Amino acid sequence: MAAPTLSTISGLHHGASPLLRARTSSTMCACMPSLAHRKVARELVAEAEARLLPSAVPADVLEFRNSTGTAVGMLDVRRGVPASSIDFMLYSSLHCKVPNGAIDITSVLISLNALSDAPHFLMEFIQGSPSSMVVILDLLPRKDLALHPEYIVKYYENTGLDKQRENIEELPQTRPYRSPSLFVRSACSPTALSVTIDCGHGGESTLEEIVSSHLASAVKEVLQIWLHSCAGQTSEMEDAEREIMVRRDQAVRLKSIEVDLTANLPKMFGPDVSSHIEYSDIQWVTKTKRPGPILDYLGKVGVRRDKLPHLLHRYPQVLHASIVVDLAPVVKYLQGMDVKPGDVSRVLERYPELLDLKLEGTMSTSVAYLVSIGVARRQIGGVITCFPEVLGMLAVARMIKKKPYVLGFGLED
């Protein structure tokens, strides 16, 4: 059968969102086949595990099926750990029985946040028969390459990415795969691996060998390049430049969700599943919040422009915060503790993680304990300004309460 188009694949991949509510059936007959390319994907995800938070999707979405039992899918969405430039990872795998066989699609997208302008990681395997499949492996650029040749040199030329593409394309069983979508082609890099691997009739074992050795090696190498050269990087950018990049990210993600989505999900999972997709929540999963208002607010409270990269590196989650719900209450609390207006920025620059602390709980309990051991109320502001970390020291406060003899040591000790 003809290989699906890349636009179709992207639509299917992103369409399987955490809000996709599949109705289960007691007579399910489809199961997720154990294919070589799925093992490659699992190993890839395991390699990135340390940089990711636990799964953000409910258990009943980690696996979903259509009502007739002919299609099964899984989806995992995981955010990056604190201080990471990773925004989220989308890992999905779909299996659908068709009259002449089955279609199996496995995708991994690891998206970076606005701390960095480095490329996103994309891998997709589309197997339409036991002996043939389409492979897409790329680091998706986030800048206009014609306007930024230095970006090509930094992320594509100096890293030797093109060697991995060449290694796969040299195999006699491969031929180039070109998406009919001009938009999809424009979103890929010059080093993108986009091929069809066709091992011919009876070539199942040959395909498995290619996937398990050559392809697995290429995927691992590209991931290592991305983890080393992209995932751990932050980038100095003007606010306007960062805004443009974020808008570009959103446009590419939304386009990948929309292209052929309504046409293809019903074909694979039927109306039961496709009718339960909630588009606004799909967008939430793949959306990077525009940093402009957040950065403007931090500037208004006094955080210096040259300190922003350090603050964002220490606590990148601030880019996803709400000014009204998350940031303003913390600033108000600090001012209520007699931290001088000019010192609020100093506290945030030194200990940005306090933006994640609970006002009623960690911070209030820590302040109450300082008072209980003799720190005068009028001195609290000065203590917080000099040692803002004390606001997160609930565990230390409890330790002192249980082991008061540690108070025999002075602060200088």
UniProtKB/TrEMBL annotation:
GO BP annotations listed: chlorophyll catabolic process; DNA-templated transcription termination
Alphabetized Pfam families for the sequence: mTERF (PF02536), RCC_reductase (PF06405)
Top-level lineage group: Eukaryota
GO cellular component: chloroplast
InterPro entries (alphabetical): MTERF, MTERF_sf, RCC_reductase
Keyword match Transcription: yes
Entry annotated with the keyword Transcription regulation: yes
Signal peptide (residue range): none
GO MF annotation terms: nucleic acid binding; red chlorophyll catabolite reductase activity
Keywords: Transcription, Transcription regulation, Transcription termination, Transit peptide
Similarity comment: family membership: Belongs to the mTERF family.
Name of the protein: mTERF domain-containing protein 1, mitochondrial
Species this chain originates from: Triticum urartu
Highest classification ranks of the organism: Eukaryota, Viridiplantae, Streptophyta, Embryophyta, Tracheophyta
